Amino acid sequence: MSDAVQVHSVADGPADGPVVVFSGSLGSDHRMWEPQVKPLTDRGFRVLRYDTRGHGASPVPPGPYTLEDLGGDLLALLDEHGVERAHFVGLSLGGMTGMWLGVNAPDRVESLVLCCTSAKLGPPEMWADRAKTVREKGTGAVAEAGVGRWVTPGFAAAHPDKVAYLREMIAAVPAEGYAAACRPIERMDLVGDLPKISARTLVIAGAEDPATPVEHAEVIADGIPGARLETVEGAAHLGNFEQPERFTALILDHLEVAR
Predict the structure, then answer these.
(1) Global confidence as pTM
(2) Which terminus of the chain has a smaller tally of CB atoms within 10 A, N or C?
(3) Domains of the chain: which residue ranges?
(4) Which residue from 105, 69, 66 is spatially nearest to 187, judged by alpha carbons?
(5) Is it true that the peptide bond before 64 is cis, omega within 30 degrees of 0?
(6) DSSP per-residue letters across 166-183
(7) Which CATH superfamily is domain 9-258 in?
């Protein structure tokens, strides 16, 4: 993992608390997890959020990236913070990184929460096309469609300010970083590796998620031994942001059992 990059991270909560690492979706930065920070730190957890390479304030190495690159960055982040084992919560691309971690570095994973994600998300051409669009026109060209997948139409109508905030988050991602991070999704097929994951796992699906529909969560929950599946109503792809109370309650319940 010598080519790991030092990603930008933000830590909140007691220094001696159990560490929970949050990993975000393609096109997001660490702020997407803001709704979860206070509820977890209030319960004594140390919350570590970070920007995926190529996103937010993290470096933008030339692409394309691999899932191993993203996993290596995460392991380097744990080392940087002196964390031997952590609970891991990932959404979409973050969940894919979490599954990679569960397969390849099980000794570093205390438990897994996999939100609105997939073990195989085709078709590959779609991801190649999106990367091409972003390289040619910038992330602003995909921001509107991205938010359209992230939240339900009802939420968008009721919260135009929050939609604008999310749209700006996507548009602020460096074009090369976003495009290079499409490649791991394009190439990914973790379905056969799921039975190797031994960490206690909670899978959360958004009932109205158009990007990674519930069937994708079912494949993950069926593949990982002992995994539990929960579906949250009224949630599209960025379910933790649209339905924060329900997502946070499920996450906390999963973490508390592990204590």
Answers:
(1) 0.97
(2) C
(3) 9-258
(4) 66
(5) yes
(6) HHHHHHTS-HHHHHHHHH
(7) Alpha/Beta hydrolase fold, catalytic domain (3.40.50.1820)
